[in-house]
Write a structure and sequence with these properties.
The chain is built from 25 helices and 18 strands. The protein is an alpha/beta fold and 595 residues long. Strands 9, 10, 11, 12, 13, 14, 15 and 16 form an 8-stranded mixed beta sheet that branches. It has a 6-stranded mixed beta sheet with strand order 1-2-3-5-8-7, sandwiched between helices.
Length: 595
């Protein structure tokens, strides 16, 4: 699939979503939501929220399309979109992208100074965001402004800016970069360790070339400063295949790492177990000493040693006088090759096993490797093997980020084949694992967890799958089970469709709670098999969902009692309060009605 074809498909998908009625009211917001969701899926951001704001304040133009705040309130991503709707890749001048970034920076500046929240209508999502930024700004460590565009940018990043003493990175996600991610399915390709740039020369190593294996191995000692700079650039994306996340500097092991860095950096290589790195490709050069060296690694993931890597970064950040030039980190580097060389599943299994066994010094469940667990593999297999009642279309479960577009690219190698594939697997029948978890958790009665964001909700969903409750709620043995699971996605999207034009703010919370109440009170009236058969929600139930959403919105505001609605919605006591509110009930005949 060429860039031209990819862009044409993207614009067609946006038009289709607009026509379906379950999208935001403007095509630019649909585009922004599409790109932000992709960035969350590959780990570039966490739980983004669409939030449109465009206004002149104190003769300064402010603009925003969305945001994402990390769970620890230490990372903030702001998004601003520049959407043209063009069917052909057009260039966008750097002055346009920098202007958009500047307007987004102006929004951030006024929020940080506490001069914006009071000037935004409380019904606008940006009002609450301004309050949040004002509150968390002092503790923010990472701030990035992302310019999203469907045109081709010459520069993908710009020089960092300063806002009230904080460094703000500026990046551009243009259609060319998006194409590489979604069409080729290789966002890891952007994650490059260039040791000649980071350290001034190739990294000395001992090479252990594979003979009967599909990978090669190198042993090395990576300079601490090179590792710090790499984490600073890529953040948590670098640890995506790691089965653990950073536990904080107060953890006993991480405290020991911090203390070694401060008091005995030259002994770090002796005291630390080191890291395990997986890479798709490597470039080799002779070191100045005449030995073998690694010039660069591409498609890098740290699968063991995430605590070490993050501890080095945060220790230096909090204690600037730590001398990382004296630090060397032992590293086992595994070059596994590309998917094309091994096949998708073979590479995934290898990476999963390396991650699993490299972390086996403390208990790690196989279920932590979420995308490879049986539930997700079975759902992927069953959706692709089962036709909808029309006998033409099928759902596509996107277990791995970008797999839908990779499928179109690989199998749709001619225009007729691509057209046939898109008829068979419509974009609106695609669902990824984080959206699926949100839909299922809301219907199962966990709207407070669904309101906590895609990743945190997915973690809880994965944990429940390990328990008896998960097997009881979401059995997946055959196609009939798969159909009932997809029916819950259809219900969630139907509620989404009626809520979006109905309410100006806190839509995600209202949707989750409305779906949860429907799941609690209407299960005997909502036949999941019938919903699968119809592929839509019956009109009487759609009307009821709209009515219930208004009640939920009012109840959420009352429960918040002047506090932030979105924060209140994350608390279990909010669900305890709302699950008992009085709702108008449908007539009995709703059960039998078809759409």
């Amino acid at each position: 699939m060429t860039l031209d074809e990819f862009l044409g498909q993207l614009q067609a998908d946006i038009r289709e979503r607009m026509e379906s009625g379950d999208a935001p009211p403007y095509s630019e917001m649909v585009f922004a939501e599409h790109v932000m969701d992709h960035m969350a899926e590959i780990g570039m951001t966490s739980d983004p929220v669409t939030c449109h704001y465009d206004a002149m304040v104190d003769r300064t133009k402010l603009r925003l399309s969305g945001y994402a705040v990390s769970r620890d309130d230490e990372q903030l991503d702001l998004f601003v979109s520049l959407y043209s709707g063009s069917e052909k890749p057009l260039p966008i001048p750097d002055n346009e992208t920098t202007q958009a970034a500047t307007r987004c920076l102006a929004f951030l500046t006024k929020c940080a100074e506490g001069r914006l929240a009071s000037r935004i209508d409380a019904a606008n999502d940006a009002h609450e965001l301004a309050q949040i930024i004002e509150m968390i700004f002092p503790k923010l460590d990472h701030i990035t402004v992302h310019v999203l565009t469907d045109r081709v940018a010459k520069s993908k990043s710009f020089k960092s800016r300063e806002v009230n003493g904080k460094t703000v990175r500026l990046e551009v996600m243009d259609v060319e970069r998006l194409y590489r991610h979604l069409s080729e399915g290789k966002p890891r390709d952007e994650m490059i360790l260039d040791f000649k740039t980071l350290s001034g020369s190739p990294l000395p190593c001992v090479l252990l070339p594979g003979e009967d294996t599909v990978y090669s191995t190198a042993l090395a000692a990576i300079p601490g400063e090179a590792l710090r700079l790499t984490y600073e650039k890529f953040g948590a994306r670098l640890l995506e295949a790691n089965v653990r996340s950073f536990l904080s500097a107060t953890n006993k092991v991480n405290r020991g790492i911090r203390d070694t860095l401060r008091s005995a950096p030259e002994h770090f290589v002796a005291f630390n177990n080191g890291i395990v790195v997986i890479a798709d490709a490597a470039g080799y050069e002779v070191t100045p000493e005449g030995g073998p060296g690694i010039a660069w690694l591409r498609g890098v993931q740290i699968v063991n040693g995430g605590q070490t890597t993050a501890s080095i970064y945060f220790t230096k950040k909090k204690t600037p006088d730590v001398d990382l030039r004296r630090v060397r980190v032992p590293a086992k580097i595994i070059i596994v090759g590309s998917e094309d060389e091994q096949g998708d599943s073979a590479r995934e299994v290898l990476v999963a096993n390396v991650s699993r066994f490299a972390n086996s010094q403390s208990a790690v469940k196989v279920s932590d490797l979420s995308a490879n667990r049986p539930f997700h593999r079975d759902l992927e297999r069953l959706t692709q093997a089962t036709y909808c009642p029309d006998g033409v279309t099928r759902w596509f479960y996107e277990r791995a980020a970008g797999s839908y577009n990779v499928m179109l690219s690989r199998k749709g190698d001619t225009p007729p084949r691509l057209k046939k594939l898109k008829v068979e697997f419509p974009p609106t029948y695609k669902v990824n694992k984080t959206e699926l978890a949100k839909c299922l958790m809301a219907w199962a009665g966990y709207p407070d967890i669904a309101s906590q964001g895609l990743q945190k909700n997915f973690e809880k969903f994965s944990a429940l799958l390990d328990e008896d409750e998960g097997a009881r709620r979401w059995p997946l043995v055959n196609a009939a089970d798969m159909k009932r699971i997809i029916a819950q996605v259809i219900i969630f999207r139907a509620v989404q469709k009626v809520v979006r034009p109905l309410l100006p703010a806190f839509q995600a919370n209202v949707i989750a709670y409305t779906v949860a109440l429907m799941g609690q009170r209407l299960k005997d009236k909502m036949d999941l098999d019938r919903i699968w058969a119809d592929q839509v929600l019956a009109p009487p139930l759609m009307a009821l969902a709209a009515e219930w959403a208004r009640h939920v919105d009012k109840a959420l505001h009352e429960s918040a009692a002047g506090r932030m609605v979105s924060e209140r919605a994350k608390r279990p006591e909010c669900w305890e309060q709302l699950r008992s509110i009085t709702m108008p009930m449908p007539q009995e005949e709703v059960r039998a009605q078809s759409a």
